[in-house]
Amino acid sequence: MGSDDIRHAPPGSGAHRADGAAAGREPGLERFRRHVRWSLTATFAIFVVMFAEDWITHPELGVPGRALAAAALLLMTVAMVVLFGRRLPSADADGDADAGLPPPPVAWLAAGWAAAVPLAVIPLALPGQRLWSLAPAVMVSVTATFLPPERRRLLIAAGIVAAAAVGGLAGGATGDGWRFATGFPAGMVAFTAWTTLGALWAWDVADRLNQGRRMAAELAVKDERLRFAADLHDIQGHHLQVIALKSELAARLADTDPARAAAQMTEVHQLAVDALSDTRAVVQGYRRTTLDEELANAAKVLSAAGIETRVEPGHDPGADRLPDACRHLLGLVMREATTNMLRHSRARSATVGCRVADGAARVRVRNDGAVDTPGTGTGTGLRTLADRLEQAGGRLTWEHDGEWFELTGSLPLHAEAGER
Q1: 100-125, pLDDT tens digit by residue?
Q2: What percentage of the chain's residues is helix, strand, coil (to nearest 5)?
Q3: Residue 246 is assigned to a structural domain of this protein
């Protein structure tokens, strides 16, 4: 875990999420993506191969026909692997995950259709083979996944009509019942499309929800930036307005009443010193960094980032009597722990809490998904924060055990906050 402040992340960059999550994808969602991709690919490949086995061994099909069918089966299987991979890109894939449907890989779609044609024509020409529509139905469904909803529905409807027409003509030519010969191929196209699009719809919904959680986390960070900017504006605006007025008055009095002008400039100097002090207080978090607010903010921001957060029960009555110095320093600990968890972990769950016992207050933050150990950075990082707690008579410790990271800050109730 590192020590960069979350405020330093570029707006909208998603840098407050961790490594793989920075690309907008939770580890569990990535596993779901792989499950959908390989389930669809394996299901259709197995069914196509299994049903093709009946007519590939047909005595009326010669060796060239069997070789063509085997090559078509291999090509279609490879095409499905590639096409489903393009439709369900990983978090590391090039391109914007939020941009909508990926562009269709025309070459691989053409390869899949080129394989589906002989896999339909050959069994259609053989007697008693009624599963000729399976390969075209699969390709209609795969192609439809790359199209927007309106064009997708048109393609599926056209596929159903075409399958019914071809099946009806073939049934009439062979003397089979036209109802089955017409209805079964059309039903095959509809069922395959339903299966494929249903699985991909579930994936798309899960991905959009994940993007929504990421946006909520970014908005929480931006809200904090706006609060900080508003505080800074209020302080600077008030002081600068008064400084401007008193400087103007001093300029008018300089010739007629030098003593009053000097008094005004003394006040201007004091106002400038106060403005500088208040500005430093805002930047360092002195004005509004308290333990209670940081506990509430941690639960809100972590939950918005998709991290299941539990606040330890049993908030001690003694915590309400904590001195301001303790509240401030322990609030900084909570803020730093939250920042590091968002930026430098793949956390899925976290526990935060504060307890007061034996004359000391203790803040504890524990999370899974830890991928780094604390750095040796300066500024508002863990090392500098540990020094500040030590100067106040307290202690800051952290432990990295496998994927678990635990940060604990403790202070005696009589602690004094440093000036840094």
Answers
A1: 677 888 999 999 999 999 888 888 87
A2: 65, 10, 25
A3: yes
